[in-house]
Amino acid sequence: MNRVYEFLKKAGVYYLATVEKDQPRVRPFGTINEFEGKLYIQTGKVKPTSHQLMENSKAEICAFIGDSWIRIACRLIEDDRFEAKKSMLDAYPNLRNMYSENDGNTQVFYMEEAEATVSSFGKAPEIIKF
To answer: Alpha helix locations (H) across 26-130?
Structure first.
């Protein structure tokens, strides 16, 4: 899991794919946080991403650095605890001008049933399950 966390942190931006009815939806994200041994992302409950994940928790994440890329297939499970939200916002203090732990909008999800594939040109893919 640490390799996945470090890859996403270094990339800075990753792309999160969700499903809305029968249509894939992809958008850039930048939050990744390790909390209690799990990897978390953050969004707002008012955003389409939130609604899509509440309907269908299956998601994929993709990022690219140099000649390597990572794809993560997982379920994103909501963690509504204050501590999980605080950990994310402490890791990304720039979000505090838009979110707080108690605003009723801040939402964090952790990766479950996750399988990451790290690939690069000319090398065999590395599979990481966490």
So the answer is: 48-55, 82-91
What is the C-alpha separation between 93 and 42, in angstroms, rounded?
13
pLDDT, mean of residues 66-83: 98
Q: How many angstroms separate the CA atoms of 92 and 100, rounded?
A: 11
Average pLDDT, the chain: 98
Pairwise CA distance, residues 33 & 3, whole Å? 13
Task: Give the integer Cα–Cα distance in Å for 6 and 98.
Answer: 26
**Residue 57 in contact with residue 76, Cβ under 8 Å?**
yes
Nearest to 70 by CA among 108, 25, 13, 110: 13
What pLDDT digit, counting tens, does each position of 52-67 carry?
A: 999 999 999 999 999 9
CB 44 within 8 A of CB 99: yes
Alpha carbons within 13 angstroms on the beta-carbon side of residue 17 total 11
Please tell me whether residue 74 adopts helix, strand or coil conformation.
strand
89 and 105 Cβ atoms separated by less than 8 Å: no
SS3 category, 51 = helix
